[in-house]
Structure formats: C-alpha cells, structure tokens
Amino acid sequence: xxxxxxxxxxxxxxxxxxxxxxxxxxxxxxxxxxxxxxxxxxxxxxxxxxxxxxxxxxxxxxxxxxxxxxxxxxxxx
Length: 77
Fold this sequence. Notes:
By secondary structure, this protein is α+β, with helices and mostly antiparallel strands. It has one domain. It contains 3 helices and 2 strands; from the N terminus they run αββαα. Strands 1-2 form a two-stranded antiparallel ribbon.
C-alpha cells in the first residue's frame, strides 16, 4: 500500500483520485455561511463549529527554538 500525500489527505482525495463523499457530514447547515464583504468572498464560521474544529488542539503548544537544542524532557517540564 502506497502512503497518501499530505496534500491529498487534506483535500479528501483517496488513492483512486475520487473525493470522499462524507468528508463534510459533520458540518451543520448554520455552521458555514458563504457571502461577500467589500467585494471579497467571505466564509462565516459559527462559534460552535469553530470549537469543534479547535477541540483536538486545545492542549497543543507550538514552539520554535532558534539556534538551540532542547530536549523533549526539558520542554515537558
């Protein structure tokens, strides 16, 4: 089995190049509203949907260390 590319996984494209039919089934009718603002496209996301999207990363810390080597144990402490 050949691993899928990151791009295809994000786009919801399977190995046989067909789009997953149920990729967005968790999106409710009021969760995403398309429109325009000042002539530019706009996508409004409900607070409830935003919370569901952010939930897996609530306890995530992103760190960028320049010019140093820091161990995992040090970061945990």
